[in-house]
């Protein structure tokens, strides 16, 4: 049932984005290549071979996008810094890029001038390509020190103004999609080992950065350092069946617990250690494919988060499924479970993202129980469309946001220590291996128009009203929001259609006029030659 009520005073409302997905300018002003530049430039890696070379042109449109943030009336903006933009090779002693540092200084200053809090992620997947080529990226322990140098540079240059730092955004995807399935950059398929090794180094890196901040910067800058972990919720198919309940627990532990357990409890989840260890032994390996932390490392890692960022998009039903021993080693067969969806769940966009609002409340309560009720910010939550035509009147996104935000309000009333919400995302943008085919934005971008204009969707208007009311004050007011948002988007749709026609006419003019002019000259020359021949 829907709960009418408001969030506590001081609750933070925001939107998010990431550097590679929005900035473009991939090789401009001294930026070095990232693994995503290298990955997308290889044919067959991304849908329609699209790249983020120009993306949303966010590098050139900071002022425009801050204007959108002002329209939304958000308290904060979550964005990431591109490591190779400020440190082209990823190695501090080799080269710093002052233009890149200036770009982020200008962005942070502009946000603060407009009373918008910057929440900054140090890593949203764009590792410097040089570190991948030289060392194998997150497979190599040397990344810990290189990343720590980069993080300290960011604290030094921006920490006087940035008070909320995220070390890694969704490291699960970095490890699993980058080093297990190869769907994401760097595109390695190191089955059964690669993801665990990458995650192990990322967790150690996170801890080192937290300690660096704690020892060197905290007393002066008074900020916070956390991590953003993305996880679905796993619900047992039969809640009365113990094997289903155990399988659902494993689903959460192999996603969220993989990273959260070492940080909050000092080690990998017991169920992960047991399952991966047993499978490794069955495969004839002398040691587990899941690396181990020493006693000193466990103590060093435990407690290294001032807040937990939570990314959440959808839910699965989970049940037990045993995989045969002879199968090749894989993260996906290690946890012995199968995922199902309810055909009744709305799925407005891609085939993985079903709208199941109650899942977020259960996930937040799990975090409260498992990890001692830490300070939580919801750092990513949203839904995409996957349609060939423009959809500004996105009623289904409104329903998604309304449902999920309402369940977060219920979780708050359950006693969960959640202090902020970030809608994902501000803009339609480059969606990794899906290219531009999936659109998460509250603002539509016409990527065919070289100016990349932004247009508000109905969901932008609706989200603004939630922010202004700080929740859902009463049924009458909330019901009016929907109709007003849909009316506004109809007008914007007409504007977009007119702009698209003008852009098309300009393109035609650009092609046709030079062609006609060239033809006229050629005809004139032919006629002149013909005339001269007749009179000679």
TrEMBL record:
PROSITE patterns: GLYCOSYL_HYDROL_F1_1, GLYCOSYL_HYDROL_F1_2. The active site is at 380 (nucleophile). Keywords: Glycosidase, Hydrolase, Membrane, Transmembrane, Transmembrane helix. Its EC number is 3.2.1.21, 3.2.1.45, 3.2.1.46. SUPFAM superfamilies: (Trans)glycosidases. Pfam families: Glyco_hydro_1 (PF00232). It comes from the Eukaryota. GO terms for biological process: carbohydrate catabolic process. It catalyses: beta-D-galactosyl-(1<->1')-N-octadecanoylsphing-4-enine + H2O = N-octadecanoylsphing-4-enine + D-galactose; Hydrolysis of terminal, non-reducing beta-D-glucosyl residues with release of beta-D-glucose; beta-D-galactosyl-(1<->1)-sphing-4-enine + H2O = sphing-4-enine + D-galactose; a beta-D-glucosyl-(1<->1')-N-acylsphing-4-enine + H2O = an N-acylsphing-4-enine + D-glucose. One of its GO terms (molecular function) is galactosylceramidase activity. The chain crosses the membrane at residues 511-532. Gene3D superfamilies: Glycosidases (3.20.20.80). Belongs to the glycosyl hydrolase 1 family. Klotho subfamily. PANTHER family: GLYCOSYL HYDROLASE, LACTASE-LIKE PROTEIN. This is Cytosolic beta-glucosidase. It comes from Eurystomus gularis. The lineage of its organism: Eukaryota, Metazoa, Chordata, Craniata, Vertebrata.
């Amino acid at each position: 049932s829907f709960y009418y009520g408001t969030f506590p005073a001081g609750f933070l409302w925001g939107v998010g984005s990431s550097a590679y997905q929005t900035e473009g300018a991939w090789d401009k002003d001294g930026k070095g290549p990232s693994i995503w530049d290298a990955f997308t430039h290889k044919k067959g890696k991304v849908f329609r071979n699209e790249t983020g070379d120009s993306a949303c042109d966010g590098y050139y449109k900071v002022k425009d996008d801050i204007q959108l943030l002002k329209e939304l009336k958000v308290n904060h903006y979550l964005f990431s810094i591109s490591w190779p933009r400020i440190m082209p090779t990823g190695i501090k002693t080799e080269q710093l890029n002052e233009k890149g540092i200036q770009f982020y200084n200008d962005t942070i200053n502009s946000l603060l001038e407009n009373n918008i809090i910057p929440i900054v992620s140090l890593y949203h997947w764009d590792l410097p390509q040089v570190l991948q080529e030289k060392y194998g990226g997150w497979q190599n322990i040397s990344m810990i020190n290189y990343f720590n140098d980069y993080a300290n540079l960011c604290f030094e240059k921006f920490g006087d103004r940035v008070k909320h730092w995220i070390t890694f955004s969704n490291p699960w995807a970095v490890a699993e999609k980058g080093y297990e399935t190869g769907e994401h950059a760097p595109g390695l398929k190191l089955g059964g080992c690669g993801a665990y090794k990458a995650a192990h180094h990322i967790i150690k890196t996170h801890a080192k950065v937290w300690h660096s901040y704690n020892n060197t910067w905290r007393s002066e800058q008074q900020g916070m350092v956390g991590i953003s972990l993305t996880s679905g919720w796993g619900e047992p198919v039969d809640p009365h069946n113990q094997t289903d309940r155990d399988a659902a627990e494993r689903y959460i532990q192999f996603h969220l617990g993989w990273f959260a357990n070492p940080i909050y409890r000092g080690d990998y989840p017991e169920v992960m250690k047991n399952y991966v260890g047993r499978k490794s032994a069955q495969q004839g390996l002398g040691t587990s494919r899941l690396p181990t932390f020493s006693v000193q490392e466990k103590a060093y890692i435990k407690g290294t988060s001032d807040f937990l960022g939570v990314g959440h998009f959808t839910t699965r039903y989970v049940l037990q499924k045993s995989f045969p021993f002879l199968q090749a080693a894989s993260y996906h067969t290690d946890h012995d479970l199968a995922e199902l969806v309810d055909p009744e769940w709305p799925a407005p966009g891609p085939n993985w993202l079903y709208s199941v609002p109650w899942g977020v409340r259960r996930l937040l309560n799990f975090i409260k129980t498992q990890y001692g009720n830490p300070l939580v910010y919801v750092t990513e939550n949203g839904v995409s469309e996957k349609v060939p035509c423009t959809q500004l009147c996105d009623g289904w996104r409104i329903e998604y946001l309304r449902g999920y935000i309402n369940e977060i309000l219920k979780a708050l009333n359950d006693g969960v220590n959640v202090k902020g919400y970030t809608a994902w995302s501000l803009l339609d943008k480059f969606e990794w291996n899906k290219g531009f085919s999936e659109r998460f934005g509250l603002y539509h971008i016409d990527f065919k128009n070289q100016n990349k204009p932004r247009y508000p969707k109905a969901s932008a208007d609706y989200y603004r009203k939630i922010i202004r009311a700080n929740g859902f004050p009463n049924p009458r007011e909330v019901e009016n929001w929907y109709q007003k948002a849909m009316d506004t988007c109809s007008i914007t749709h007409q504007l977009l259609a007119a702009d698209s026609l003008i852009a098309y006419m300009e393109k035609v003019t650009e092609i046709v006029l030079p062609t006609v002019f060239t033809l006229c000259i050629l005809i004139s020359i032919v006629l002149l030659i013909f005339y001269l021949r007749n009179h000679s």
